[in-house]
Amino acid sequence: MWEASPLTYLALVVACLLSIFPIIWSFIVASRDNSAIYDIPPPLVPGGNFLDNTSRLLANEQASFLIGLVNSLFVSTVVTISVVFFSTLAGFAFAKLRFRGANALLLVIVLTMMVPTQLGLIPLYMVMIELGWIGTLQAVIVPFLVKGFGVFLIRQYAQSAISDELIEAARVDGCSTWRIYWNIVLPVLRPAAGVLGLLTFMETWNEFLWPYIVLDSNTPTVQVSLKILSTGNYTTDYAQVFTGTALAIVPLLLVFIVFGRQIIGGIMEGSVKS
Amino acid sequence: MPDPVRTAESPPRATAPPAQPKRSRRTARRAGRFGQFDTKASPYLYIAPFFVLFGLFGLFPLIYTAYVSFRDWTLTGGDNGFVGLANYSEMLSDDRFWNALFNTFGIFIVATVPQLLLALLLANWLNKKLRFRTAFRMGILLPNITSVAAVGIVFGFIFADRFGLLTWLLDVVGLDPIEWRNSRPAAWTAISIMVDWRWIGYNSLIYLGAMQAIPKDIYESASLDGASPSRQFWRLTVPLIQPTIVFTAIISTIGGMQLFTEPLLFGYGRIQGGALNEFQTIAMYIYERTFDSNYDYGYGSAMSWTLFLVIILFALGNFLAVRRSLRGSTK
């Protein structure tokens, strides 16, 4: 491997600054007063209005920002737990259990990864009307409880991480398949399940189009209330909009700072395996 | 793809010799009826939730879209029955549809080519002996973990016409301001920058993963033969990670064809995508016709299904690429 030259460092630092800047800038505007966005030159250092902006944002009934935050937390958590649970279950079955049709069914799962859900939105919307779920959180949770990508990811990992002998030994000791899954397989799968969980949480938190279609300002997710904020009757209050933007990013930043290494590992791993 | 079940566990123990006195009661039970049922049925039980839920909320809507596309169906008017290909022929003579399709492909090309090239370059830099490795990787991935909606708002102001950050920057370096939303090339560029900002880091980490799987001795012998680093990059690295490049290209295609949130928020949330629809994508136009005003399910479905057929061509290629690398990983 070659030694990195100073030029490489410079290029990487520039790339990182460009990556980080829009996010930092949203925090800067969020901490300034409302007129700062019109300033020339534009604001590049933080001010002291963050708390003031936040309290105005939370008092803004039209955007229901706090409800959005709580809803997003709830929706993302439920979807994450479900995706991890069903993916480990199915991934384990595909990697380590014998059953008729396993290959064909696995192929179907790989194919589902290529089906863009967006193209089924119209009938899905009609289904939601039939079920009476428009405007409720079920509508943004239930359709996303499983993920083909998750099953595939776990299956790939389980195949190399779990030895057949281990399962065999457990069977001889009288473990049922469920106990093997719960007591032996799940602990081994923890790293892959963790990455899947993190990616799912972030993806669900960031989901925009579908919540935007089926939810309204009474039960928004945080992204929907951001949209309401940025285009509603409050468009003149940019400080408030940017405060919302910044606050919507904070939970993800926290997750990223704590688990960044694992997330990066998962993405790089995926490139070789999938 | 080789048969993965062959390498899985050995046959069930149901036919094991009768329980010996030494065995525990649980072992005896395993060898009995329950054990047999357990090993036979549990795999299906474990994969069933995926297939049931995907069938209901993934596959069914997709097929039903095709069905709806042959009907005259609106929210207010209800289902007025089969109309054959009427929705499709309306679509073919609809200028707005062609405009949206043009924009979608235009933005896709403007965005994807630099996106993948820059990701390759970035990956190559990251693939060197480097201090602060994790920090750099986190830095470039950061855009990808933030929400499109939030970022769309921020970029909306970076590209604001009069008081935007970029307008000011252009002024500082002595360039004329650009009316980002009133010209097709400018709007496409701005939206492409938003898309690329979000995805370059992600793609370069995928490339980096593939690059690190390349055996190092290949480079050693290339160095001995006197190949310069840049020659090694284009002649060795890039060809060797070609399957990964194909994979990212097709993934970008599927995403690009469905582009919605970035252009929506770039246009301050208006679904029309500019005064003359300069940057309305096909996904936005489907939304406009289906959920914004007309609630024309039949027409929206016809457009969706057409788009699906376009995407499926790329998806097929995607599948072949995935299958090829699958073959490698399962031995």
Automatic annotation (TrEMBL), chain B:
A GO BP entry: transmembrane transport
Predominant cellular place of this UniProt entry's protein:
membrane
**PROSITE patterns according to UniProt:** ABC_TM1
What the entry lists under SUPFAM superfamilies is as follows: MalF N-terminal region-like, MetI-like
Q: Which CDD domains match?
A: TM_PBP2
Tell me the ranges covered by the ABC transmembrane type-1 domain, including all copies. Answer: 101-320
List, alphabetically, the InterPro entries matched: ABC_transporter_permease (IPR051393), MetI-like (IPR000515), MetI-like_sf (IPR035906)
Q: Where in the cell is it found?
A: Cell membrane
Question: Can you list the GO cellular component terms from the UniProt entry?
Answer: plasma membrane
Q: Which domain of life is it from?
A: Bacteria
Keyword Protease among record annotations: no
Q: Which UniProt keywords apply?
A: Cell membrane, Membrane, Transmembrane, Transmembrane helix, Transport
Q: Where is this region: Disordered?
A: 1-30
Family assignment from sequence similarity: Belongs to the binding-protein-dependent transport system permease family.
Q: What is this protein called?
A: Cellobiose transport system permease protein
